[in-house]
Amino acid sequence: MARIARQSDRITRVKNLTSPRLPDSLRRADMSRDVLEDDVIIRGVEFDGTPFIALAAEAAEVEGCTFENSRFTGARLRQSQFSDSRFTTCDFAEVSAQDVSLIRCAIAGSRFTGSSWKSGTFRDVRIENCVIAPGLFRHMKLYAVTFSDCKMAGADFQGAEMHNVRFENCDLTGGQFANAKNLGVVRFENCTLVDVFGSAGLRGAVVQGPGSMELALSLAREAGLVFEP
């Protein structure tokens, strides 16, 4: 059940994420037919240690699948969708994803170093214990997304639309939020927010923990304030 939190006269609604709806049983991947390529549809498959290194796929659709120890390093994805899927200890380093959607997905213990996600949609997505330093999420639409215990120094959310987005125990040192749009609830809980840029784009966000003072200093810097002893 969602809980309601009050901030002065403003009501913020915190929505629980919808978990991936995985099939009761999955079949093992058969790489003679379960190839991630243009216009493919893959459903109910278990991938374990599968290499997708440097692949290129457009208009692919993946639903109800699990990926364990899979490497997407250097992959190029376009106009594709992953739904009701789970990714564990996967490598998304240097991935280039344009207009790619993740719907009801969970990602844990994975690496996004140097990846670029642009103009796509994350909806009901949980990203936990991942390294995203740096990672680009420019002009993404983030609806009901949680980043938890992630290393995100230098993460770039320029122009992103955020609604019901939560950052928990994340290091966002040097993060970029210029022209981001807070369309609803954005929360930072016990995060590191040193030297955040474009912090004005976070107007209305809720900050709990030590990051509140760090974010205030970033706002002051961008406003041109000078503090003297």
Automatic annotation (TrEMBL):
Source organism superkingdom: Bacteria
SUPFAM superfamilies: Pentapeptide repeat-like
Pfam families: Pentapeptide (PF00805), Pentapeptide_4 (PF13599)
Record InterPro entries: 5peptide_repeat, PA_immunity-related
Name the record gives this protein: Pentapeptide repeat-containing protein
Species assigned in the record: Streptomyces coeruleoprunus
